[in-house]
Amino acid sequence: MSRDRPLALALLSGGLDSLLAAMLVLQQNVDVEAVNFMTPFYIGELESIRWFSRTFKIKVHRVFLGDEYLRMVVDPPHGYGSQMNPCIDCRILMFKKAREIAERIG
User: Is residue 47 part of a domain?
Assistant: First the structure.
């Protein structure tokens, strides 16, 4: 399928910073789809994501990071740490899943 405009995949937490980042990309004449991750401990800011999706007509891919996420928390590849280690492992998993979606949607 040929596109008139480029397509970007935004990672939406539902917080203001990710919503504004996606809006800035939209203003650059780029089509945007988004991915929102849910974990067993956090489902995201659903109301702001729904509002954003409706208002800007953006498709949002909701991804539940269930068993894979729990296994990573129990046995983190970068080990347990008092600084950034827990966040590094979570981010790597989310970026890996986002890349799979990006490759699928083109």
Answer: yes
CA atoms within 13 Å, Cβ hemisphere of 3: 10
91 in any annotated domain: yes
Helix, coil or strand: residue 21: helix
Closest by CA position to 9, among listed 61, 45, 75, 54? 61
CATH code of the domain covering residue 100: 3.40.50.620
The pLDDT tens digits of the residues spanning 26-63 come to 999 999 999 999 988 877 778 889 999 999 999 999 99
In this structure, is the dihedral angle defined by the CA atoms of residues 19, 84, 44 and 8, taken in order, positive or negative? positive
Boundaries of domain holding 96? 7-105
Q: State if pTM tops 0.85.
A: no
Q: How many other CB atoms are there within 10 angstroms of residue 5's CB atom?
A: 10
Q: What is d(CA 63, CA 78) in angstroms, rounded to the nearest whole number?
A: 23
DSSP type of residue 65: -
